[in-house]
Specification:
The chain has 115 residues and is mostly beta strands.
């Protein structure tokens, strides 16, 4: 399993950013995928999840209505579109696969929301 995140960066409050996770090494269409984030000094928390099959999405209350998770099955990629970003969204964002009781993580991509 290999998960590679990209697309992080510095954005002003109120701005938008899309992060991506390119997946390989497993049958992407068969598994749900999640995005987590971890801010300095805080625990890693689930941000959004998309099921497979069905594409049912779940969001943390803190991001509901602002973030959208989606997936491109032919491209083996999961996205997180982040709108109306706030300084408290600053964190390292990680792609997650849970398969057969094991968690797989990418290296993360840093998102910083600051003026």
């Amino acid at each position: 399993v290999n998960l590679v995140e990209s697309g992080g960066g510095l954005v002003q409050p109120g701005g938008s950013l899309r992060v991506s996770c390119s997946a390989s090494g497993f049958t992407f269409s068969s598994y749900g995928m999640s995005w987590y984030r971890q801010a300095p000094g805080k625990e890693r928390e689930m941000v959004a999840r998309i099921s497979s099959p069905g594409g049912i999405t779940t969001y943390a209350d803190a991001v509901k209505g602002r973030f959208t998770i989606s997936r491109d099955v032919p491209e083996n990629t999961v996205y997180l579109q982040m709108n109306s970003l706030k300084p408290e969204d600053t964190a390292k964002y990680y792609c997650n696969l849970r398969r057969q009781g094991s968690n797989y993580w990418g290296q993360g991509t840093q998102v910083t929301v600051s003026s």
